[in-house]
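Pair request: fold both.
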Amino acid sequence: MDIRQRLSLNLRRYRHDAGWSQEEFAERAGIHRTYVSDLERGARNPTITIIERLAKALSVNAGALLD
């Protein structure tokens, strides 16, 4: 499994655990909903800055999104 696949699975899992829609997650992270969708499908390569924003919104360490 490549790093994009790990990121997409972890994002989806943490978002579901939080009970958030993609729209709510995107709002909390300060990014567009379609970008969240693309990330969860493994269609985008986010910058480290975006990974940090996603992690902060989910209250996890950025490394947890890539494990």
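--- second member of the pair ---
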Amino acid sequence: MKDKDFRIHIKIDGRAYPLNINRVDEERYRKAAKIVNETITEFRKMFQGNDQQDIMAMTAFQVALNFTKEQERHDYSQFIDDIKDLNDDISDFLIEKEQK
């Protein structure tokens, strides 16, 4: 069997979802399912009486929010721009110093 033909069943809120995945990604998929299930449980406790669609919508929103926060933590573009500016300043300084 090829790695990409590995079949697992992920349970989300008690429902099983069969997935064909790459074998090396199994732990990532199971961890993601665990996070979703834990988030559903938290929202059920916080919003007792809300219907299932509200709980799922809030869960999806929370997971997406955490994803965007993680992306921002790894955004080094401003840092790279600052280093380029600093490099330009140093180059300009050295050019001026050579001209004196």
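Observation on the second member. The longest strand covers residues 6-12.
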